[in-house]
Structure formats: C-alpha cells, structure tokens
C-alpha cells in the first residue's frame, strides 16, 4: 500500500514561503499533474465512504492505494485527480491543504499473499500488482486465474493442491518467475509454448509432482536455468530426450513413475541429489539390441547426419519444419557421430553415482543402478562396444 498526494498550499502557509519556494512548489504541482494526465486506467471507489480508494495507473503499471482517509477529503482528492487526468489546468483544480503522511502511516506495497482455502480466495478484487510471492492452495481451482498473469513482479507462484488440468501459455509472460509449484493437480502435459517462453531465462524451481503427466516435450530441456525439478508420482514413461542439456540442474526427483530406462543424454547431468525410487526399470541386455539400420543408408539419413556432424546451419526458412524437428532430436552414437532414424539401440547399466553425489535407492534391494539407452550409428560401432562389454564381463 502507498499514498499519493497533490496539494496546493494557500493562506498563511504561502506567507511563510519565499518567491523561489513558491515557484518550486508550483513546478512540482505541475509535474505531478502532467504525470496524471491521461495516465489513469481505472478508479476503484467502492469503499470511499470507509476512507479507502485505489487509483490504477498505466505507466508505471501500479495501483496507488489510499486508506484510513477522511471520506470527505478523499472524495475531494479523487475529484481533483479525475480533473487532472482530463488535463484541467492546475489553477482550476479544487486543491486544498494536505498534511503529508508520516512514514509510519504509509503501508508498504504488499509483496506476499498466502491463500489456503476457497473461502479466502479473492473473487471480486484484483491481486495487488506489487506481489512477488503468491500462494493459492486448496482453492479447488480448475484453471489458472488469468488475473495472476498480470503480476509482472511475481517471483514465486504456488498453485499446489488444486484441480488444474491445463496450463495457459501466458504463464510464460511472467518475466520474473523463478519458482512454480503445481504439486497435486490434474495436469496431463506441459505445453511447448512455456518451454519457448521467457521462463527459459528465469525459472529455477519447478514442481510437477503428483499429476498425470505421461511425457514431457523435447523442448522442455530449453528451461536451462532449472536447478530443482520434481516429477514424482506422475505417469512418465520417459524423460526428455535431451535431459543432459539442463546444465544447471542439481536436484532431480522422478520417483514412482513408469520409467523403463533413462535417456542416453542423462549421463551428462551433474546433480547433487537424485531420486528415481519406485520405477519399473527393465533389466538391461546389451546382447539383444533393437536394430533399425538400413544398409546402405538412405539419402535422407546421410544428408541429415552430415548436417548435424558438420554443424551445417539450418532452419525453417530453409527446410520443412518436420525435417528441422528430426534434426533437433538426432541421437548420438558412442563414437560421437549423429544418427536419426537408422541406428542400433540397446540398454546398459549405469551407476547413478556417476551423475549424482547423493542417490536415493532405486529399489528396496539397495540398488543405485539403472538402465540407460545407448545408440550406435553402424554395425562397426556396435561390434566395438560389444567386444569391450564381453571382455569386461569375463
């Protein structure tokens, strides 16, 4: 909460001022009035009889909240502000002597709001524009309230324990958002638009646990500022293909999902803590690979491999979008070369301590190992891998 005042001193007060002081006061008044001209978006005067009112400005986009005022004086003040908004000359405004508020009487802008029940949820008034932390849990929300998406200073948004099924793309407009908690909702997906939004540069904490998500888009790994990611108690059948691109990630939990194995890129992570307990990991068998090779390689496969291997620039202005998407999810052979639709795939065991300092046991047997996918671009690469594998297991 803050206060705004425009006043023109008169009477005995003017007699005590020098001409220079009076001139400075007039300049200040004119400057204040110029700031108000055509800059008011809306007045909120429902509670003016109680000495309360709000003036919403366009620039800067703030709410000027007035409270604990004399109702009569407040009405006069609002009348003057309305005239100033319309461009009325300062000399024609009905301004009176106003006593400046003491510092102790000025309420600071509200930066935090905690709502934990449906009955406390604000239905008829907006959220304060100054909010940096908003929690609206146990409110039975079926969707994200669009009023929240106007809170440009919001750094932490907690919508846990609601009934939200889908996220609006405009959450990505919250340019300052660092923490997003969606624990225990009804989400089935995480939209690509959010992965391409300003969240790429701001989001550090994301809790999607206890939802109904089966897969995350490839573009999810563009959220490269993520430090803490919670995916527990979903229906995930795979983790994002380019998981290793999350170079800032330090805490990852995806317990009690339906993961059969981990993506090849997972080995590029560097975590402090990892929790994959309760997933139905398959028993790796490098001797029984899935072979999807075509010999000789198709022209499309050869061209695609060359594009990735030699880092040839491409884009949707040069190639059809479906080809760009294929190139973006190119697999990497253990030799370092790329492969797209022609490859040999198998799984091997990886000790999770290879990517995390602290590992929660994968199962009740005390294991800390999990299967990870490996890709090979040719029979030669697979044969070399197989020779090393057999020698190490003699």
UniProtKB/TrEMBL annotation:
Look up the record and report any one GO term of the cellular component aspect: nucleus
Q: Which Gene3D superfamilies match?
A: Ribonuclease Inhibitor
Compositional bias ranges of the Polar residues kind:
1-12
Task: Tell me, in one coarse class, where this protein mainly resides.
Answer: nucleus
Give the pathway annotation: Protein modification; protein ubiquitination
Quaternary structure (record):
Component of the probable ECS(LRR1) E3 ubiquitin-protein ligase complex which contains CUL2, RBX1, Elongin BC complex and LRR1. Interacts with CUL2, RBX1, ELOB and ELOC.
Protein name (Swiss-Prot/TrEMBL): Leucine-rich repeat protein 1
**Originating species:** Chrysemys picta bellii (Western painted turtle)
Quote the gene name from the UniProt entry.
Answer: LRR1
């Amino acid at each position: 909460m803050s206060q705004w005042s425009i006043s023109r001193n008169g009477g005995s007060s003017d007699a005590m001022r020098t001409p220079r002081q009076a001139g400075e006061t007039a300049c200040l008044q004119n400057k204040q009035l110029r700031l108000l001209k055509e800059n008011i978006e809306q007045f909120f005067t429902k509670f003016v009889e109680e000495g309360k009112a709000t003036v919403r400005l366009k620039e800067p986009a703030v709410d000027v909240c007035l409270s604990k005022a004399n109702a009569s004086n407040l009405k006069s003040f609002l009348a003057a502000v309305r005239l100033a908004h319309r461009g009325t000359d300062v000399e024609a405004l009905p301004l009176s002597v106003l006593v400046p508020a003491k510092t102790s009487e000025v309420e600071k802008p509200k930066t935090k709001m905690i709502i934990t029940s449906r009955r406390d949820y604000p239905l008829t008034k907006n959220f304060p524009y100054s909010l940096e932390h908003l929690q609206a849990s146990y409110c039975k929300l079926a969707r994200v309230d669009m009023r929240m998406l106007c809170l440009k200073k919001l750094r932490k948004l907690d919508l846990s324990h609601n009934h939200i099924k889908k996220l609006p793309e405009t959450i990505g407009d919250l340019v300052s958002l660092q923490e997003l908690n969606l624990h225990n909702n009804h989400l089935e997906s995480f939209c690509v638009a959010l992965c391409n939004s300003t969240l790429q540069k701001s989001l550090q904490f994301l809790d999607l646990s206890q939802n109904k998500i089966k897969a995350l888009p490839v573009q999810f790994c563009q959220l490269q500022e993520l430090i803490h990611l919670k995916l527990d108690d979903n229906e995930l059948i795979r983790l994002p293909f380019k998981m290793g691109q999350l170079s800032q990630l330090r805490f990852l939990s995806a317990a009690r999902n339906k993961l059969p194995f981990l993506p090849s890129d997972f080995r590029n992570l560097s975590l402090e803590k990892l929790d994959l307990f309760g997933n139905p990991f398959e028993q790796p068998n490098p001797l029984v690979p899935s072979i999807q090779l075509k010999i000789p390689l198709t022209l499309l496969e050869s061209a695609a491999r060359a594009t990735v291997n030699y880092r040839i620039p491409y884009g949707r202005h040069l190639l059809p979008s479906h080809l760009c998407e294929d190139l973006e999810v190119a697999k990497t052979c253990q030799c370092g070369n790329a492969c797209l639709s022609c490859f040999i795939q198998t799984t091997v065991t990886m000790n999770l301590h290879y990517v995390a300092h602290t590992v929660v046991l994968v199962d009740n047997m005390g294991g800390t190992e999990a299967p990870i996918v490996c890709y090979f671009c040719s029979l030669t690469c697979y044969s070399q891998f197989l020779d090393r594998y057999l020698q190490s297991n003699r």
